[in-house]
Amino acid sequence: MKKTPLITEISKEYTFEAAHHLPHVPQGHKCSRVHGHSYRIEITLQGPLHPQLGWIVDFAELNAAWEPLHAQLDHRLLNDVPGLENPTSELLAAWLYERLDIPGVRVSRLKVAETCMSSCTVFPAPA
Fold it and tell me: Looking at its record, which EC class is this enzyme (predicted)?
């Protein structure tokens, strides 16, 4: 029987609470006022399975990589975080993607949900 090559991904969700305002929206836009969200982040990793352990990476390593980012964002005004002066979901997702580093695996997708019905997903462009 021929084995089909497989690509494996794992995902984990994280949350944080933060406030923001969007400084470049038209005057009178509701998002120009300071308001808060319960952000939900889903991080998806892709990589080869460890031949003995049978996993891509220990979830504890992902937790450790997330923790310093969480500390920078949780219960903050996102506009005050360097690089997030215009904290749209799209720019927040890119900011997180650029800073999340886990040796030996790649972040294949990172999703930011600012409400239960609104989200943004970033992923690397095809080569």
Answer: lyase
Catalytic: 35?
no
Options 24, 37, 114, 116, the catalytic residue: 114
pLDDT tens per residue across span 93-117: 999 999 999 988 899 999 999 999 9
State yes or no: is 98 an active-site residue.
Answer: no
Question: CA 117 → CA 30, 92, 112, 127, distances in Å?
Answer: 17, 17, 11, 31
Residue 40 in tokens: 């939900």
Q: Is 31 a catalytic residue?
A: yes
What is the C-alpha separation between 47 and 55, in angstroms, rounded? 9
Provide the residue type at 77 as one letter: L
29, 35, 67, 75: which one is catalytic? 75
- Per DSSP, which regions of 21-124 are E strands? 35-46, 76-77, 106-113, 119-122
* pTM for the model: 0.92
Catalytic residue, chosen from 21, 31, 61, 120, is 31
